[in-house]
Amino acid sequence: MFNLSPFKIMIIVAVILVVLGPDKLPQAARQIGNGWRSLKQFQQRVESEVRDAIPTLPSSGDLARVVRSPVNLLNELADRAATPEALGDINDAPLEEEIDAIDAHEGYEPREHRPPTAPPDPSWN
């Protein structure tokens, strides 16, 4: 995220020391530490409330890993989908009654009764 070399960090510290001075630096460090601590406590409170509301949510470490590398998540999901257990049984196909119920749904128009979406291209003939 931040590409800070040790030299850049030393320059930042030197500028802060010059701006604040040695007498105000400890007070500023305490304020920054207190702010950071309250931010972490707020984060923990929010995370615990979200965990109470959605217990199946992955851990924050897992979420951070996914955000850092979404390609790895996609690869993992593809590997899971390729396993025979993920594909399911061929007997899990919808029954005729279920298909009829879907067809009878209000607003459904069978494919043979639907108007064509675009005229066929004459150059294909």
List the helices and strands and how they pair.
Elements: H1 6-53, H2 60-68, H3 70-82, H4 84-87, H5 96-103
Helix pairs in contact: 2-3
Describe the model.
By secondary structure, the protein is an all-alpha fold. Among the domains are: 8-56; 58-87, no CATH class. It is built from five helices and no strands. The protein has helices spanning 6-53, 60-68, 70-82, 84-87, 96-103.
Order of helices and strands: HHHHH
Cα-based radius of gyration, to the nearest Å? 30 Å
Content-based structural category: mainly alpha
**Large-scale geometry:** elongated
Give a short account of the largest sheet. none
In total, the number of strands is 0
**Fraction of residues in H or I helices:** 55-70%
Helical segment count: 5
Taking all residues together, what is the mean pLDDT?
76
Could you tell me the strand content as a percent range?
under 5%
Instruction: Indicate the low-confidence ranges by residue numbers.
Output: none
Distance between the termini: 56 Å
Summary?
This protein is mainly alpha-helical and 125 residues long. The protein has helices at 6-53, 60-68, 70-82, 84-87, 96-103.
Record keyword descriptors for this entry.
elongated, single chain, 66% helix, 125 residues, mainly alpha
